[in-house]
Structures are given as structure tokens and as C-alpha cells.
UniProtKB/TrEMBL annotation:
Residue span(s) of domain Histidine kinase: 242-441
Annotated organism of origin: Acetobacter orleanensis
Lineage, broadest ranks: Bacteria, Pseudomonadati, Pseudomonadota, Alphaproteobacteria, Acetobacterales
UniProt keyword annotations, A-Z: ATP-binding, Cell inner membrane, Cell membrane, Kinase, Membrane, Nucleotide-binding, Phosphoprotein, Transferase, Transmembrane, Transmembrane helix, Two-component regulatory system
Catalytic activity: ATP + protein L-histidine = ADP + protein N-phospho-L-histidine
GO (cellular component) term, any one: plasma membrane
Annotated SMART domains: HAMP, HATPase_c, HisKA
Chief location of this protein within or outside the cell: membrane
Broad enzyme group: transferase
Subcellular location: Cell inner membrane
Name of protein: histidine kinase
A GO molecular-function annotation: phosphorelay sensor kinase activity
Amino acid sequence: MEKSVRRVLPRSLLGRSLLIVLIPLLVTQAISLELFYGNFLKVVSRRLSDSVTSDIVLSLNALEHLQKQSDKAWFVAQARDHLQLVETWHPGARLHRFGSNHITGPMDDDLAHALDTAIDYPFFVNWKSDPHTVKIAIQLPDGVLDVDAPRKRLDMGQIWLFVVWAFSSSVLLFVVASLFMRNQIRAIRRLARAAEQFGLGRDIGPIKLEGAQEVRKAAVAFNRMQDRIYRFVSQRTGVLAGVSHDLRTPLTRLRLSLAMVPRTGTIKGEELSADVDDMIGDIAEMEHMIGSYLAFARGEGAETPEHVEMAPFIEDVVAAARRSGATVASVTVQPGLTAHMRPDAMKRALTNLLDNARRHGGAIAITAYAIQDGVCLLVDDDGPGIRPERREAVFRAFESGRGGGTGLGLTISRDIVRAHGGDMELDASPAGGLRVKLVLP
């Protein structure tokens, strides 16, 4: 059954959306028509049929009791003028058809039922011979009485107006809904097309925000994702470009050292001791740089986010930093503060920040507190700081290699924070050095 229904249902979102609009609309109109037919129309039709039948019974009773022909003619004239019934007497005539021919609606059945209940004579009701008159022929013992009743006394012509109105309003509402739905679907299609183009590696730029609120939120999320991926690719490309630049210097020194080694004769170890120490230092430097490159390129996407209590988390990072020689003067954490994050990745980011503060500053102060949209973490030092015009530049890979670093510490830290949906900013510290502000959602 489910597979059969799926074959019938449209596959496109527009078709299914229109079907969702059309089915309730049709059901509502069908219920309205059924209520109209089943209650109001039938009640009014029975009352109209009873009224005409009562006039016919009155006419039959009067014609049976009036003996003079002049009196009968007078009553027939009165019935035509006041009851709107045209009566014609056919003496000796016989009916050959009985009952009623049927038309759409309950009027024919109601009139036949009322006549059958009110009179004891056979009759035939003809609805089709004249569009404006209902002809009723009653078989009496000595002839046939023809009664022409106005159709408007029995037929409710407004039912067709109601049906036309219901159908027209349904079509109009469906067309309006189709236009609005098409505009909403157009925004979704544009988002899907942009995602496909982005997947093919084409730079399409940010998507224009349009459509419903949910579609706009999806477009905003897509633009942010696109920006993060471009930034991610740009940083990784910068790393690949910087590998050859940073490794070229120690490789050149190694090549020169090896070129200075004699290729013939007897070589004493003490004579090459200084050169060997230099080469070992170059290799260690290369290992350090390659480790940093790999750590940056690997990222922390495989770790599962979890809720972490900030107080013990920061204390662990501070304890490790103190073992490395950092001077952490104060740690202030709001009681009960928690954050949803990848703990290993954030520990690495915070460790990089404390290591930078240790190498360039002195005393370090750490503060963590809750904000409206998440958690704010401040790392302050009393070092020389960074000039405002260079604060954005130091986030680029290989920007600074002073103090034995590779210029990737701040880049890695901000990359981790942004992967959590947060951000990192640099500012002047109240202690005179640099303040690093981390915001986590």
C-alpha cells in the first residue's frame, strides 16, 4: 500500500506542497456541500413541496364540493391569481404514466412523497417539459386534473450559485496558494543549486536571503558554512605553501654541512662534532615544525562534543602550563559554569594561548564567565602586547616565528574555536599586555 501511494504522489516538493493545500481545500468544500444538501436544502425542499401539495389538496377539496360550473371556474381563477396554480380539467381522460421523472436535487422526491401522502389519487409529475413550470397530472375518477405550478415554488435555483461560488473560490485560493508556494520553492531550489555549485568547487558567493524564515535561516547557515570552508581551505593551502618556505632554511644548512664533510681520507669524530650537533639541531627544528604543521592540518573534527565543567577543565590546563614554566597569577571561573565543546581540542587551543603568553609576557590571568549566548573566556598577560594594526595579521599562518614558535599557535587556536561555532579576538589587557577573548556558544 505504501509503495502504491508513493507511485501516485508527486516527487517534487512543489507538487507535494500543492497537494497538501488542495486536499484539505477539497475536503472542506465537500463537507460544506454535504451539509448544505443534507440539511438546509432538504429541509427547505420539503417545506416548499408541502406548501404546493397543500394548495393542490385545497383545490381538489374545493372542486369536489363546488357543484356549479361557474363556482368551479371562479375558484380556478382564484387559484391562478392567488395560489399561482394553473388548473385544467380534462373530463374522461386517463393517465398512462405515474410517479415522477427525476432531476438533480431532492425536489422531485420530496414533491412525489408529499403528493403520495396527501392525496389518494394516482399522479404524474413532469419536471422536464417546461423549464419554468412543473406539470402535475392527477387521475380523478371522472377525468384528469392538470396543475401547472411555477418551478420557482419548488426548485432552489441558488444551489447552482452556491456550487459555482464554492468551485470558483476553491480554484482562486488554489491559484493564490500555488503562486505563494512557487515563490517559497524557488528559494529552496536556489539554495539547492548553490549547494551543488559549491560542491563542484565553484565560487558562487553568498546566497541572497529570501523566502520564508526557515529558508532564510538555511541560507544564513549555508553562507556561514561556505565561509568557514573557504577559510579552512585557505588556511590549509597557506600551510602547504609555507612548508617549503620554512623547511628550506634547515634543509639548506644540512646540505651545506654535508657538503663540508670530507669524502676521502680519515675523518676524526671530534672534528665533526660541532657540525653533527648543528645538523641534529636542524633536524629537531624540522621535526618541531612538521609536528606543528601536521597538528594544524589534522584538525579536531573527529572528537565528539560534550558538556564540560569549566572550573576543573581550566585548572587542568593551568596546572600543565605551570609545569611548563608559565606564571599564572589568578584564575577566576564563575561557579557552575559549563560549556558544550570538544575538550581535547579546546585544551590544545588554551594551551597554545598560555604558551604564547608565557613566551611573550609574564604573569597570566584567566577569567571565565557566562554571557547571553554562551561562555566567555579571557586570557590576560602583562607582556608587550600587539599593536592594534597587527592584531588581525598575527592570526595568519607563519606570521610570527619569534621565540622558537612556528607562527601557528594563534592560527590553530582560532581555527579550533571557530570550529565550535565561536570566535576569538585580541585586545589590550588591563595589565598592560595582550588580552585574548574566546567566545563559545
